[in-house]
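#struct-queue
[09:14] JT: dropping the first one here, sequence first, then the structure tokens:
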Amino acid sequence: MKKIITGLMLVITMAYMSSCATILGGKISECQKTTPRAGDSKRKVNVGWLLTDIIFAAPIALLVDFSTGAIYHNCTYSVPIETGSIKDNFTIKFLDKNIELVPNVFFNVKDQHLIENSCDAGHLVPGGFQSSGVTYKITIVHNNKTYYGRIGFYKVADECKGEGVASFYRIAIPEKSFIDANEGSQSCWGEFTIGGGVKRPTWIIWLSDVQIF
């Protein structure tokens, strides 16, 4: 039995040591490891690592590198994110603008004349997000109940680039955020990139069932 366990450990060790991208490709980002959600851009396979695995150590190396995510390109964005889509079952109405965003229909932030704040204008704080940038008054109807709030958009490219969660503003709010926004309480939710170890939001929504914003 001991010999079998030792043999298995040796095989596993050899598999990882022969996996070129996992061993030599540097730190594996969350974006590489995370399977894209419906509507998100697909991860792109790094052809260089793919050929190296095939030539020197297939098929074990391929299995390891695909399972760890090391075989994929990192998802650092160097171009602006300007489009968005609601990937949930609600509609967002802007109170100060003639704008209504509906599920699964892409919108362009610039075409809607919405301002994208600097990435430094929004930041994580204990319990949620804070923003010193431009935000817009909105209403969201969820389960036949109207919620009031604000939404802000934040740049992702240039000095703000990082490991993105999507290649567009993917707007979805978990049920817990609506529950937390009842009886005059407020909640917030958003998505963010990670760059240089700093989490920066790409969009933020603040909610309440009363008009406190």
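[09:21] JT: and here's the second one, same format:
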Amino acid sequence: MRKKLIVVVFLALAVFFAGCGTQESSTTTTTTLPAVEYNFNVAAAEGDLLTYAVDTANQLYSYNNITDGSSGSGSYTVNQDETFNIKDSSGNSIGTGMLLTSEVLALGIPDPSSPNHGRAIAGVPTLTASYSATADGVYNFVNSFGEYGTFEVVTANRSVSYYNITEASFGTGTYTDEGTGIIKYTEDVMGEEWNIMLLPGKVLVIDQPGGMTVGVTATTEYGSDLAGTYYWVDNEGYHGDFKVYVDPNNPIIGVDDMVTFEGTSSYGGGIPFTGIATAQANGSFLATQFAGGITLMQKDVIYLPGKVLAFNARGDEDYIGFGVQF
């Protein structure tokens, strides 16, 4: 469970902001995406590897859990902001939890039997061939263990190396490419095995024992395209939006520069928040989040400007969120 600074503070804020809760948008019948089936390789925050299929023509989804052999399916409706309300196979509403573009899938499902816990996934499209050199590069990452850092992928020798900034640790390893969009990585020292999936040159998703990692192409300088509204889900089953503002008078954001943000979370019935994020040396951001004048938490946040964001809760060993900009 994510460490919320003081539970009483959150309860008080929930009361204070009563009446300001987020309302689900009325549903539309389609998205702006082409009416086809999208197929994704997916990592889940609890350490599972899955495949997901989303049929936008008939508003259906299905999945196969490669880790435990389970499968399932359901339907969805579309909100005006293009987030999805998902339903199980019996037609029971699960909540606003699916975010879909042609390049990424994000899903967050609340667990009514376990407060402040749920299921979150992040996925990228399946492939029918091995990765080419377009997958090469450095990716900033956050993971569900409260850590952040960088990965480097080199397809020429099928190697992956990483620097975990939180723990000040390094790692290297090699991989085999299955030709499906999944590469099997083995860490050199500990021998730990991970499943790595890539949207080449843009997004990295890793299924690893007990958790998951999300990465985006690293950069240390951002522009005005960083601004906008990103919709997110997390592994506690909550969802919301995250609006990033860039000063038009100072549109270039480098190391130690700051941006402001605001947003809402479905936690507590809909708690609005604000914050300040400072760019770090590797191009990630350290975000401090406030509500009602109280500091709630600090997050490590990474962006693929105008497309994707991912975040953890700094120091929390069981929290991750993932989102998209439509």
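[09:30] RK: nice, looked through the second one.
[09:31] RK: The chain is about 5% helix and 50% strand.
[09:31] JT: good to know. The first strand starts at residue 27 and ends at 28.
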